[in-house]
């Protein structure tokens, strides 16, 4: 494994057979094409000024799609009046010559969504528009059965910590950018109690017992503040709110802060308006006609927000191209804040990739080692991630890795979203 002084190699979109390559070749053009379709649909029912800007925006978006398809070099981002462009261009300059299909995956994917955002930021009538909202809402509606099941079970009893953690974990299986091609039946197969029990054996790094031991053995301070760095909107956000409510009700946490993105990011990541949208859907009898449990649960969730027990925040650092190894230098105030947190829960694949620097570590490398500076800090980190990329660590032995490769050949267990990790680092005092 890499020594402390040796730089781990990041995943590149040119790596043959990698999820990075598949994403760049097939998913990115479809995501941009879907963005074009969305603004066309919105413009059709919009005012004259908004429609007038649509043509230029379509051209700019299609230019991105054609650049990807022709494997052109990545261009410096144009200033759009919003801070952060310099960070992208500085990192792009540091990488040197690279193209869409031959560049570090993590950087290029962040670059893609920031470039899309420059088109909206530079407009007059489309600023603040969430081009992915329509897709988020549509996918959440397909989760009706699972939402109603979780609402009824949360109302009936205080679930055990392990089960609640796994509910929050497998909610991440509904990442829109990866699973939008599935049918409603497929989505429901990924959610709910039966799926959780069936898939527990697929948690390839399971530190739940270590987390529970930390929560039970540490003193009970007056302030047990928990931070949750969110991933996807819709059903996963619903499971995150259920998880936050459980942590508060069980007095594991005295307050919970949810970290959202500042602008639409990676198709389905939570922006602040998605929280309001979630409550609108949960309150809709059209979306959720079975109101028996939701009409009791939703007011309880709202009350947590109203009294400040659950709050939201949006840090610019979450939408930069940097891995979290750069947090101490690039976002020192955020780093200090999270070090003082009782527990920091990172949701989803992108956060996991950024925690581990998207490195091609040996699968048996310890989670702590891959965290870099965060692994040497006081930050208590819990990563809940279903495996949808090329990076995975914390597997207990090479024997286990060999068994996984036999069970899911070609490294499918690292990429197909059917396997997961619950990885914990207790931090250093």
Automatic annotation (TrEMBL):
Catalytic activity: beta-D-fructose 1-phosphate + H2O = D-fructose + phosphate; beta-D-fructose 6-phosphate = dihydroxyacetone + D-glyceraldehyde 3-phosphate
Keywords carried by this UniProt record: Hydrolase, Manganese, Metal-binding
Cofactor(s) the record lists: Mn(2+); Ni(2+)
Annotated region (Disordered), positions in chain: 1-24
Domain of life from the UniProt record: Eukaryota
Pfam families: ARMT1-like_dom
InterPro entries referenced in this protein's UniProt entry, alphabetically: ARMT-1-like_metal-bd_sf, ARMT1, ARMT1-like_metal-bd
Enzyme nomenclature, EC number: 3.1.3.-
GO molecular function: metal ion binding; phosphatase activity
Entries under Gene3D superfamilies matching the protein: 1.20.930.60, Uncharacterised protein PF01937, DUF89, domain 3 (3.40.50.10880)
Any one annotated GO CC term: nucleus
Top-level enzyme category: hydrolase
Location of the Damage-control phosphatase ARMT1-like metal-binding domain: 23-397
Amino acid composition bias (Polar residues), ranges on this chain: 13-24
GO annotation (BP), single: DNA damage response
Described purpose of this protein according to its UniProt entry: Metal-dependent phosphatase that shows phosphatase activity against several substrates, including fructose-1-phosphate and fructose-6-phosphate. Its preference for fructose-1-phosphate, a strong glycating agent that causes DNA damage rather than a canonical yeast metabolite, suggests a damage-control function in hexose phosphate metabolism.
Family: Belongs to the damage-control phosphatase family. Sugar phosphate phosphatase III subfamily.
Domain notes: Subfamily III proteins have a conserved RTxK motif about 40-50 residues from the C-terminus; the threonine may be replaced by serine or cysteine.
UniProt-recorded name of the protein: Sugar phosphate phosphatase
Native species: Aspergillus pseudoviridinutans
């Amino acid at each position: 494994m890499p020594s402390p002084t040796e730089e781990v190699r990041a995943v590149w979109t040119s790596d043959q057979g990698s999820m990075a390559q598949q994403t760049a070749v097939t998913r990115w053009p479809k995501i941009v094409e879907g963005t074009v379709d969305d603004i066309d649909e919105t413009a059709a029912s919009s005012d004259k000024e908004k429609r007038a800007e649509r043509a230029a925006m379509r051209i700019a978006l299609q230019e991105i799609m054609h650049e990807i398809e022709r494997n052109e070099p990545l261009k410096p981002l144009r200033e759009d009046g919003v801070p952060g462009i310099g960070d992208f261009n500085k990192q792009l300059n540091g990488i040197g010559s690279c193209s869409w299909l031959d560049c570090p995956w993590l950087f290029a994917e962040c670059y893609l969504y920031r470039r899309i955002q420059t088109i909206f930021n530079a407009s007059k009538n489309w600023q603040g528009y969430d081009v992915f909202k329509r897709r988020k809402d549509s996918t959440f509606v397909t989760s009706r059965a699972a939402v109603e099941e979780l609402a009824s079970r949360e109302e009936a009893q205080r679930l055990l910590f392990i089960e609640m953690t796994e509910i929050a974990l497998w909610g991440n299986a509904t990442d829109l950018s990866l699973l939008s091609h599935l049918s409603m039946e497929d989505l429901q197969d990924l959610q709910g109690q039966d799926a959780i029990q069936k898939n527990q054996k697929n948690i390839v790094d399971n530190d739940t017992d270590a987390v529970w031991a930390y929560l039970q053995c540490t003193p009970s301070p007056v302030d047990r503040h928990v931070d949750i760095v969110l991933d996807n909107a819709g059903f996963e956000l619903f499971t995150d709110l259920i998880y936050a409510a459980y942590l508060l009700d069980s007095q594991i946490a005295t307050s919970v802060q949810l970290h959202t993105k500042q602008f639409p990011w990676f198709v389905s990541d939570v922006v602040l308006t998605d929280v309001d949208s979630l409550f609108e859907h949960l309150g809709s009898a059209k979306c959720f006609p079975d109101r028996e449990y939701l009409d009791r649960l939703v007011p309880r969730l709202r009350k947590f927000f109203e009294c400040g027990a659950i709050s939201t925040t949006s840090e610019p650092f979450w939408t930069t191209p940097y891995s979290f190894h750069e947090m101490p230098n690039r976002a020192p105030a955020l780093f200090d804040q999270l070090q003082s947190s009782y527990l920091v829960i990172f949701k989803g694949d992108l956060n996991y990739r950024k925690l581990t620097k998207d490195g091609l570590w040996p699968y048996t490398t310890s989670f702590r080692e891959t965290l870099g500076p965060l692994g040497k800090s006081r930050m208590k980190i819990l990563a809940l991630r279903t495996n949808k990329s090329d990076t995975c660590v914390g597997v207990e032995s090479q024997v286990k890795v060999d068994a996984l490769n036999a069970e899911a050949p070609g490294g499918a267990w690292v990429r197909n979203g059917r396997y997961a990790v619950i990885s914990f680092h207790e931090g250093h005092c």
